[in-house]
Amino acid sequence: MKKLTIILCITLFGINSFAQTLKPVKIDSLVTVSLPEDYQKKDTLGQQIYSANSAYGYMVVIRAENAKGNTALKKEKDLNKVLKDYIKGIKGQAEGSAQNVRDTTIGHLKAKTFTLQTDQGEGIKLRNFIIIYTQEVTYTFEYFYEEMRKDLVNDEYKAFSSSIKLSPQLQRNDQYLTDAKGLSTGAKVAIFGGGPIIILVIIIAMVRRKKRKQEEEA
């Protein structure tokens, strides 16, 4: 019992130490996230990569500049396609499966979150991703852990993911140019389908009026 108490105390101390050493890091003037104090930063090929070991996993943040000649995305569906292709590319590189793919909102921006599961013969590895795309930069937040620690990582991952802060300057038009959704199906029916019906009603009314007038004159 005494040994168990000592183990629990050491575990709690380790968790508290992690909480104390997590600190906000400015990725750039618009994005901040909290990482362990001993994080490392590398600059390579237009990317800034921040990485650090945590109590139960491994954290990575990538700031990658998009190609200068990129055509600006026009609508939300264009953003959805970019994010879908991004996930497909990650799956292809890691030879894994994407799970729990969903949309979320961080600040004013739309983001995509999912879990990548891989197995290279050394046990199942899981990587939680959060992807934020803007016209100029793509931000990738990743939390890597082993499946055996799945029940232990929740608080740590929540502390990491919820620490992502975006400047109020970042708005949806930094992702795509317009929020216009286009006409709804009902509106299209009313305009394009209902138009001929209205014209037909008018023609019938005119014919009936002319026929009534002819009968009155007869």
Automatic annotation (TrEMBL):
Q: Which UniProt keywords apply?
A: Membrane, Signal, Transmembrane, Transmembrane helix
Q: Which residues form the signal peptide?
A: 1-19
Q: Which domain of life is it from?
A: Bacteria
Q: Which residues cross the membrane?
A: 189-207
Q: State the protein's name.
A: Uncharacterized protein
Query: Lineage of this protein's species?
Result: Bacteria, Pseudomonadati, Bacteroidota, Sphingobacteriia, Sphingobacteriales
